[in-house]
Design a protein that fits this description.
Length: 67
Amino acid sequence: MSAVTTGIVSFAVVAVNLGFINQLLFVWLKSWLIGYIVAVPSILIIAPQIEKLVSYLLEKRNSTVNH
């Protein structure tokens, strides 16, 4: 999922900023690799923290609604 997402997003950003130039494939693949290398560790680090925050907020909301 992360490979597809970073691929689509990096292609869109490169195409919008550079247009359909001769080196689009090379620039896109380089951008995709960098994006993937940044995205995967970020997701692995940030996702558990977001899940904890959402659980905390839902527990707090449920305890307020039930009382």
